[in-house]
């Protein structure tokens, strides 16, 4: 249970793996789609669209997968914050899903762990 229990991450190679560039072939494939949504996704992840200069006249560096993920999260957060979102949290009354039966311990645990 990721959100409710202890989590152990394996970090060997984590930084190197997230320095990978988004494959140009993948963004080209998305951009060549006839589906408008898929085509927009291709533009969103296209490395050339957000290439950054690396300094002192060198050619721009392509965006990394991790860098694009951060940009996507920032964009998503901005979109959500520009609206008036309302959320409903559903809580299971008990693990057996039996009617008219409430397990206070289970309910408190769900509320404590936000899920």
Automatic annotation (TrEMBL):
GO cellular component: cytoplasm; membrane; myosin complex
GO molecular function, one term: microfilament motor activity
PROSITE patterns (alphabetical): MYOSIN_MOTOR (PS51456)
Domain Myosin motor: 1-115
Lineage: superkingdom: Eukaryota
Location of region: Actin-binding: 73-95
Signal peptide location: none
GO annotation (BP), single: actin filament organization
Assigned keywords, A-Z: Actin-binding, ATP-binding, Motor protein, Myosin, Nucleotide-binding
Family, per entry: Belongs to the TRAFAC class myosin-kinesin ATPase superfamily. Myosin family.
Name used for this protein in its record: Myosin motor domain-containing protein
Taxonomic lineage: Eukaryota, Sar, Stramenopiles, Ochrophyta, Bacillariophyta
């Amino acid at each position: 249970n990721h959100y409710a229990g202890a989590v152990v991450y394996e970090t060997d190679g984590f930084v190197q793996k997230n320095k990978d560039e988004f494959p140009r072939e993948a963004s080209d494939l998305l951009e060549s789609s006839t589906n408008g949504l898929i085509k927009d996704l291709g533009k969103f992840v296209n490395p050339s669209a957000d290439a950054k200069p690396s300094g002192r006249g060198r050619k721009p560096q392509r965006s990394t997968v991790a860098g694009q993920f951060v940009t996507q999260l920032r964009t998503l957060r901005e979109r959500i914050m520009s609206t008036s979102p309302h959320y409903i949290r559903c809580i299971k009354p008990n693990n057996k899903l039996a009617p008219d039966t409430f397990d206070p311990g289970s309910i408190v645990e769900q509320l404590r762990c936000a899920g």
